[in-house]
Write a structure and sequence with these properties.
Elements (H helix, E strand, L loop, with lengths): L4 H13 L2 H14 L1 H9 L7 H20 L9 H15 L7 H13 L4 H13 L10 H18 L2 H7 L1
Helix pairs in contact: 1-4, 2-3, 3-4, 4-7, 4-8, 5-8, 7-8
Length: 169
């Protein structure tokens, strides 16, 4: 496991304690370190996402980056090509393109989550999306849900196995 419950809890507590100015400064750092992921979130507005949806996605990006950074590691910048590859891999593995019935799609997402290399972070992100009312993979919410999942997948790949030793050490 790369990010364990303790690291995630510590990260969430840190972010909650930030005032608006500090949060803004951290998000500026995230935007500079991960411009393509940040742009993917901003692009959601043109796809009909509400500000609340975009806030949810920005929080997922912020928490993912902060959790890895709190382990003392840095994250390689994620390119557009990597985002597209991760999105395509996720869509293929979960079966979005197969037009599965809602129950089968939900089961597929659960199986994907349980086998994810970052199960704690991925589970948290799915819950964050659910808390924001973004749980329907078969509707117009699909783009935001895919963006949230893609963020975790990209950060997981960009952080790589070097984080594992620092978390477990």
């Amino acid at each position: 496991m790369i990010i364990n419950e303790a690291v995630l809890d510590q990260t969430l507590k840190h972010i909650v304690l930030l005032d608006q100015s500090e949060k803004s400064m951290e998000m500026d750092s995230v935007a500079q370190a991960q411009p393509d992921l940040f742009d993917m979130v901003l692009m959601q507005k043109s796809l009909g996402a509400t500000l609340e949806t975009m806030d949810c996605l920005l929080e997922i990006l912020h928490v993912c980056c902060s959790a890895v950074n709190s382990c003392g590691d840095t994250i390689s910048p994620v390119s557009n090509e990597t985002m597209i590859a991760e999105l395509n891999r996720f869509v293929q593995e979960v079966g979005f393109a197969a037009n599965l019935p809602a129950k089968a799609l939900a089961d597929s997402v659960t199986q994907y989550r349980d086998n994810h290399p970052e199960p704690v972070l991925f589970r948290w992100a799915l819950q964050k999306l659910a808390d924001a009312g973004l749980t329907d993979f078969a509707t117009d919410q699909r783009s935001a849900v895919l963006a949230g999942c893609t963020i975790v997948n990209c950060i997981s790949r960009a952080a790589g196995p070097s984080v594992t030793s620092k978390v477990d050490a």
